[in-house]
C-alpha cells in the first residue's frame, strides 16, 4: 500500500529552510491535494477528512533540502513502515498509557474529540487555538457538540485558515469562521459577544517558546465563562516519570518544546484568573516519541 503525491514550488527553491515558510508551503501542498480529491468527487466532508487524517497518520509532508536550502519539492513520505490492514492487526508498537509502557496496536487511539464534545455542553463558541485548518472543530461538530455554536479556527498561518474556509463550504450547516491568532500575542477580542466558550489547544501550545503574561491575564478581561482544555506533550512539567517525559524535558531544554506552561497556569490560578480542574499526566502515545505523548489539562475561567 503506497501513496504518491508531490508538487514543486519554484518560489521556494533556493530559500533557506525555516519553519514559517515550510509550514506555509506545507498547507499549500495539503490544500492542493484536498482540492484534487474534491474535484474527483470527494465532496462529503466527513469522508474527506477521514481519508485525509488516515493519510497523515501514515505519511508526513517532506520538504526537499540540499545544503541547507529548500529545493522546492514537497512530497508525502511514509512515517515508517506502512502496514497492510491484515498485517497491522499483528503489528504492535511500544506506546504509553497513563505513564506505563504498553504494546499499542495501530488501530487504537485516544478519543480527545469525545472528551471535548462532552465538555462543550451549553457553549455558544468553540475556539481552537493553533487550529491549522480546523480539523478538530469539524470533528467536534460531527461528534455532537452544539450544532448552533460558533466554531472558530484561530491560527497564525493564513494558508491553513484559507484551507479551513474552503473546506467549510462543504458543510453549510456549520457556523465556521477563522481568525488570525498568535499565542505569543493573544487577542481575545475573538470572544466578543460570547457568554460561554470551550477553548482548547491540540498539540499547539507546545510550540510557544514562552506563555505570554497576557495569555491568561488578557482572557480574564473577557466577561464570559469558559472551559479550557490543553492536549499537549508537556507532562514533564508536572513531574511525569516515564522515560518519554524525560525526553520531553530534554527537548524543552533545547528549545524544541515549551518549558513554562505549568508555571504560567499556576500563576494564573494564584491570581484567580482560572481554576485548574484536572491534570491527567502522560495519558497516551502510540510511540516513544516525546512529541507524541500527550497530557490533558482542564481548567475553568469564571464569568466576570
What is the domain total for the residues? 2
User: What is the CATH level 1 assignment of the largest domain?
Assistant: Alpha Beta
Distance between the termini: 55 Å
The arrangement of helices and strands along the chain is: EHHEEHEEHEHEHEEHEHHEE
Structural class: alpha/beta
SS element count, helices: 9
Please provide a written account of the structure.
The chain is of the alpha/beta class. It folds into 2 domains: 6-78, no CATH class; 112-301, 3-Layer(aba) Sandwich (Rossmann fold). 32% of the residues lie in helices and 28% in strands. The chain has 9 helices and 12 strands. The strands form 2 sheets. The protein has a 9-stranded mixed sheet, sandwiched between helices. Strands 1-3-2 form a 3-stranded antiparallel sheet. Strand 2 and strand 3 (69-78) form a beta hairpin. Helix 1 packs parallel to helix 6 (158-168) and helix 4 packs across helix 5 (135-142). The termini are far apart.
Amino acid at each position: 500500500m503506497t501513496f504518491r503525491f508531490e508538487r514543486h514550488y519554484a518560489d521556494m527553491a533556493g530559500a533557506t529552510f525555516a519553519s514559517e515558510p515550510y509550514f506555509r508551503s506545507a498547507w499549500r501542498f495539503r490544500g492542493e491535494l484536498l482540492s484534487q480529491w474534491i474535484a474527483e468527487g470527494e465532496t462529503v466532508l466527513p469522508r474527506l477528512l477521514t481519508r485525509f487524517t488516515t493519510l497523515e497518520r501514515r505519511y508526513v509532508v517532506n520538504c526537499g533540502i540540499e545544503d541547507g536550502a529548500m529545493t522546492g519539492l514537497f512530497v508525502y513520505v511514509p512515517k515508517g513502515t506502512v502496514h497492510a490492514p491484515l498485517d497491522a492487526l499483528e503489528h504492535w508498537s511500544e506506546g504509553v498509557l497513563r505513564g506505563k509502557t504498553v504494546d499499542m496496536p495501530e488501530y487504537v487511539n485516544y478519543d480527545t474529540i469525545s472528551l471535548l464534545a462532552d465538555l462543550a455542553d451549553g457553549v455558544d463558541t468553540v475556539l481552537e487555538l493553533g487550529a491549522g485548518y480546523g480539523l478538530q472543530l469539524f470533528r467536534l461538530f460531527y461528534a455532537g457538540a452544539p450544532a448552533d455554536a460558533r466554531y472558530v479556527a484561530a491560527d497564525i498561518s493564513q494558508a491553513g485558515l484559507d484551507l479551513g474556509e474552503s473546506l467549510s463550504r462543504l458543510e453549510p450547516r456549520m457556523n465556521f469562521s477563522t481568525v488570525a491568532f498568535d499565542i505569543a500575542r493573544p487577542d481575545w477580542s475573538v470572544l466578543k459577544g460570547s457568554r460561554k466558550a470551550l477553548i482548547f489547544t491540540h498539540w499547539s501550545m507546545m510550540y510557544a517558546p514562552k506563555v505570554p503574561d497576557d495569555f491568561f491575564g488578557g482572557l480574564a478581561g473577557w466577561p464570559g465563562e469558559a472551559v479550557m482544555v490543553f492536549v499537549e506533550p508537556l507532562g514533564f512539567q508536572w513531574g511525569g516519570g516515564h522515560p518519554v517525559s524525560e525526553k520531553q524535558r530534554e527537548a524543552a531544554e533545547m528549545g524544541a518544546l515549551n518549558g513554562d506552561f505549568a508555571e504560567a497556569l499556576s500563576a494564573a490560578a494564584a491570581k484567580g484568573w482560572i481554576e485548574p480542574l484536572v491534570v491527567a499526566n502522560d495519558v497516551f502515545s502510540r510511540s516513544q516519541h516525546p512529541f507524541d505523548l500527550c497530557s490533558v489539562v482542564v481548567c475553568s475561567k469564571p464569568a466576570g
